[in-house]
Amino acid sequence: MRRILLLLLLLLLPVLMGGVARAEDVWVLGAEEGEAIAKSLRPALPPGTSLALQRLGDGVGVQCPGARLVLAVGEAATRAALRGCPQAKVWALGLPALSLDALRAGAPGRLSGVASDPPPARQVALLEALRPRPRQVAVPYSPAAEGLARAAAQILSAHGFQPVLLPSRPDDQPLRPLREVLGEVQAVLALPDPALYHEGLLKHWLLMTAREGVPMVGGLGLQDVRRGVVAAAVQAEEAAIALTVRLLPELLGPDPLPPVQALDQARVLHNPLMLSRLGLRLEEGE
């Protein structure tokens, strides 16, 4: 999140200097690191123009007086902006499409953004690069992610894998379907499904699969790889920020927000320690 905030502030600077927005029009809402970033950038802005930033976690409710647009980094910031800035449009970064869809349902017309999940084919390419190459790949999914799961299964089959689709209910023993087949599969494809792979559940998925020596590929991003997902294709943050800057005149205008944007650009992350523990490697170039 710190990297997204820094890139966002740096790329917004020339737009604001060009006079697209008044000082009170644009707020950036994110983690507490953003305050130091904004402080370092404000001296570079021309007189009368400033970039307003509010951090989360200071015990004060989010307020954005005069804002027409709030750029929110992450789910907590997005929820806070929707509650605390009722007059503003909210443009979210760092959220998977399923999270955006769920939040948009409760805030019609006020929320859009850049979805953080790359296409399923990007994650399947990582499975192809794993050595030894898996044959059967488990794909757990919540009811909301059924479309994603079926699309992933088609791609897996087209690349010679045997997908094992596992419908899982987040509120009723979500790990059980995977536990029952762990002895038969060689990898797990973790979809960008926040109902299954939120922070409270992820550690249990990782402990269970690691005990059986089965790698997890995919997930929701950088933090999942740090916690034990062996590899993931994650959104190229620079591309998401650049797209936001290009859309800024439209976002600040009177028209409704554009639809949720999807990007094909991705970068590959991997966890060398987990790969080593599981006796795996990624082919050169992945």
Helix % is: 25-40%
Describe the global form.
elongated
* Strand arrangement across the biggest beta sheet: 2-1-3-4-5
Q: Please outline the major beta sheet.
A: 5 strands, parallel
In round numbers, the mean pLDDT is 83
Uncertain segments are 13-23
By DSSP (H or I, 4+ residues per run), the number of helices equals 11
Query: Could you tell me the radius of gyration in angstroms?
Result: 20 Å
Which architecture of the largest domain does the CATH hierarchy give at level 2?
3-Layer(aba) Sandwich
What is the CATH fold-level name of the largest domain?
A: Rossmann fold
Helices and strands, in order, run as HEHEEHEHEHEEHEHEHEHEHEHE
Percentage beta strand: 15-25%
Topology, number of strands: 13
Number of domains: 2
What is the name of the CATH class of the largest domain? Alpha Beta
Distance between the termini: 24 Å
Structural class label: alpha/beta
How would you describe the overall organization of this protein?
With 286 residues, this protein is of the alpha/beta class. The chain has two domains: 144 residues, Rossmann fold, CATH 3.40.50; 130 residues, Response regulator (Rossmann fold, 3-Layer(aba) Sandwich), CATH 3.40.50. Helix content is 39%, strand content 21%. The chain contains eleven helices and 13 strands. The strands form four sheets. Strands 2-1-3-4-5 form a five-stranded parallel sheet, with helices on both faces. Helix 2 links the parallel strand 1 and strand 2. Helix 1 packs parallel to helix 2 and helix 1 crosses helix 10. The longest helix has 16 residues. The radius of gyration is 20 Å and the shape is elongated. It starts with a helix and ends with a strand. About 4% of the residues have low confidence.
